[in-house]
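--- STAGE predict ---
source: upstream dedup step, 1 unique chain passed
mode: sequence only
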Amino acid sequence: MFDFSRENRSLLANWWRNIDKTILSLILLLFFLGLFFSFSSTSSVIGEKLNKESYFFFLKHLVFVSIALIIIFFISIQKREIIKKYLPYFFLLSLLLLFLVPFIGIEVKGARRWMEIPFLPRFQPIEILKPFFILILAQIISSQLIHNLYKKYFYTLILLSVVLLFLIVQPDLGQSVLLFSSWLVMVFSSGINFIILGIFFLICVFIFALVLFFFPNKFGYILFRLKSFIDPTKGENYQSEKALEAIKSGGFTGRGLGEGILKDKVPEAHTDYMLAIIAEEFGVILILLLIIVFLFFSYKVLSKLLEERDEYTKLVLVGLISLLLIQTFIHIGVNIRLLPTTGITLPFLSYGGSSIVGNAIAGGFILNLTKKIPLNRDNL
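--- STAGE serialize ---
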């Protein structure tokens, strides 16, 4: 018993010694800010509209954040060889769950994106799949078994197409755009010719336009959202208009903790319109500070690339941080009506178990790959 306990203490000591404490602190800060904003944004909603305990959502959020912290620690303490060994299994499992969504998933507001498994709450498989998808892409691009770089790109394109097909069936435009954008960043970062990448991008846009044209019944909602975004008089823009009004009413310093009214007017505002809730209650100044936190977080992660020689590690870090950063700015763009409604959450901050767990997985991998590597390489 004594030896086991001493071994555990040594493992924890090595983890603490090698972990990037700045990145860890930023992740913890974002999660705890999410808890605080959840407390402010959901208490009145759940009490008045759903006739449940006032802090029902907050307590659920607290449970998910606690699970997230365990996931972060568990992933970040693993050796890199272990992650590479079991990565394909986790990816295939999450891909299978995504595939099953159209068949056994739950339909909410015309979209079938969620699943319910006995003893587990409703969850969204794509949120779990995203970080594993990034790692698989990096593994393919950096593989030493495939010598032709363009073959690697082709294989990643096939994998991307499969995932996007499953998402389009649901349908889920927001996550599709997010994954496609992250794939573009990773491919560009790996050294592809910029002209070839641009030609491929135009081809993808053309294919997307053909899909919208030939399958209007299935994807007409996309055209509807685009038309209503371009011309607000030609569609239902109640949620986005209320979100923009809330941001304006908050001004620089906000209306005060719990004084916002957007959460009472817009369903699921604490997920899709979290930024507008924060702006209304705490002001634009806090939003700017949050953006600075996200940018500083990205800077700290990307600065590790200068110290890293392993191509796989570089691609994973670029992919994961681009995933989180693009998602953040899509959420901001939707809230201020620069982008059409997508249903994308604000990473680490929005309410939602699937989103919190998915962000924790990404955060765990980032912490794992930004650790200091001991000279004896025993604790990779």
